[in-house]
Design brief:
Chain lengths: 217, 264
Amino acid sequence: MIRFRNVVKRYQARGNDRWILRGLNAEFERGRSVGVLGHNGAGKSTLIRMISGAEDPDFGTIERDGKISWPIGFGGAISGTMTGHDACMFVSRLYNVDPIHVTSFVQDFSELGDYFFERAQNYSSGMKAKLNFGLSMAIDFDCYLIDEITAVGDKRFKAKCLEAFSERRRRSDIIMVSHSEGTIREYCDMGAILNDGHLTFYDDLDEAIFLYNKMME
Amino acid sequence: MAISMALSFNRFGSAIWAIVLRELRAQYGDRKLGFFWAFSQPVAYIFVVSVAMAAVRGERTSELTGDFAPFVTLGLLNLNLFSAIEGSVRNAVSGNKGLLSFPRIKVLDLYISKMVVEVAINLIVFSALMLIFVILGHVPPPKDPIRFFLPMSCAIISGFSFGVINSVVSSLYKTWNNIFTVAVRINFFTAGLFFLARDMPPEIQQALYFQPLLHTAEEIRSAWYPDFESQFVDMRVPVWTSAALLLFALLLERVLRGKVLSKL
């Protein structure tokens, strides 16, 4: 479970306040996968980064129970000087899991071939995303944070990711940010709209998507 | 409560271990001569300063105990523990911001990992160099090795604290790095790299009393050389300075963490 208590976050942009959250009190419950919708600049990625702990709220606290992934789809977690193999070793140590299992799983899943032993700075953005996705699938997280998954590989690889997630969703939840209505429908069973510093949850995903589309008209 | 503390400690240990190994691999793993590079800089430094000292003093040996090289090496160990840690910790967050995407990695983990790496490298390099000097007969074995612990800890904590302070301040004010880099050069001349406090005139000694790194350098040399016991050393200066700096650095980091992270 992820619990927000009076969370406030804002940025200063050209002298004006840009609100991301205006005192949010909410819970992302276990057993539900949430698709977060919002216009460009609403703060969806910031929200994901705050949940991951990469960014602190200005005020309030975020409580996290269970093992939460890093934001998948964001390639920044793997530095350019690391090879795919280095990244596997690093993540294995970080999460105290068997490095042989992680390495063989990621090597097989990411389909990087010889590039697995090359530095990530030589990877295309798609290859980085594949490695990142493979790494996150190698660890059993209670909650996966996904920031725009659409960059991961071709159609066949996307299907592979979806299949891996479908299997994983029996025991893990997802918090996803995406502009793609289709992707949200594939991965999530409820929705939330982030707008002007307010995050509103909708039990019915269709309702959330309908309201979001109406808002964007 | 106990379980939560144990889990937190476990997370902290795993994070530090993972980052330290990653850092060592990034620094030395892919280079053909690997760890040789860790030795090259201090050796070059020691050589240049020793030759310069010999030229200035007109003789090959220091009045203390033999060659200049081990004398300079001990001074450089002290100075390097401070400056290498400060520089590395200062860039810990800005150079590794991607790592903060991992929920298990906190800002303090980055700072501490950098310090661990620098301490490990410096201790290995300088221990090896001093061992070589002992074997070659340029310096006697250390008089009281346990006495190294306190001065080296003070140098390490001061370096770490300045690193954290500079990391925070420079992320908010970009020019701070340039100002500090210039200001800290005074350590080269005042931290006892190539002199003993007793060689200085009394007025200078009085001014140098407020340089904690000179006290730690004198204490390290007192712990090593059998015939030397510095009358200048007052370990209260480095101990209290490093404790105050650490407290200030941790408070500053905690208070401004949100601003620093949002600037990344």
